[in-house]
Amino acid sequence: MNTVYSKIFFGVFCIGIGTVCYAAEKPVPRAELPAAVQKTADAQSKGAVVNRYVKDNEDGQLEYEVEMTVNGHSKDVGIAPDGRLLEVEEQVEFNQLPAAVQQGLKDKAGTGNITKVESITKKGMIVAYEAQVRTNGRHSEIQVGPNGQQLSHEE
User: Fold this and answer.
1) pTM
2) CA distance 155 to 17
3) Domain presence at residue 109
């Protein structure tokens, strides 16, 4: 009996948390972006197709994101309310990565299939590579450092 109530509580809790997480990210029209964010967004999206603008709360901090497609690959740009460029996540081809990064991702993916890889750039430097992995029908994400090494924390 206790197990049934525990499972019900856990299910309701997960649904509640999922709703909170989803609600934190909100699509917004370009016109609602602060002027400084618009300026950075325009500069970063030159020659790209903008898919959407998002207002998000990342680790308790307000942030805007521009999700775009550039030459057939995805690129997401995180921008602070004052227009500072925070982060760029850009899709890269696995076979174009340095050998050590390829090996690091393969090791972390184990038997999973790597379906997409993105570089994560902060302050003009690649700080990590993130891969989407599919294992037995489940999706997950893994990260390695710029040289394929294990990271001390997620970027």
Assistant:
1) 0.81
2) 22
3) yes
The total number of structural domains that make up the chain: 1
Segment 37-72, tens digit of pLDDT: 999 999 999 999 999 999 999 889 999 999 999 999
**Which string of DSSP letters, residue by residue, matches 59-98?**
TTEEEEEEEEEETTEEEEEEE-TTS-EEEEEEEE-GGGS-
Walk along the chain (155 residues) in steps of 10 and give the mean pLDDT of each run: 42 44 80 98 97 94 97 97 98 98 98 98 98 97 97 94
Per 3-state DSSP, the chain is made up of helix, strand and coil in percentages (nearest 5) of: 30, 45, 25
% of the chain beyond a pLDDT of 70: 85
Expressed as residue numbers, the domain containing 140 is 93-155
What are 58's two structure tokens?
């990342």
Coil vs helix vs strand at 127: strand
Q: 123 in a domain, yes or no?
A: yes
Question: Radius of gyration (Cα) for the chain, nearest Å?
Answer: 18
Which CATH number covers residue 127? Answer: 3.10.450
Strands 49-58 and 61-70: antiparallel
**Sign of the C-alpha dihedral computed for residues 82, 83, 85 and 89 taken in this order:** positive
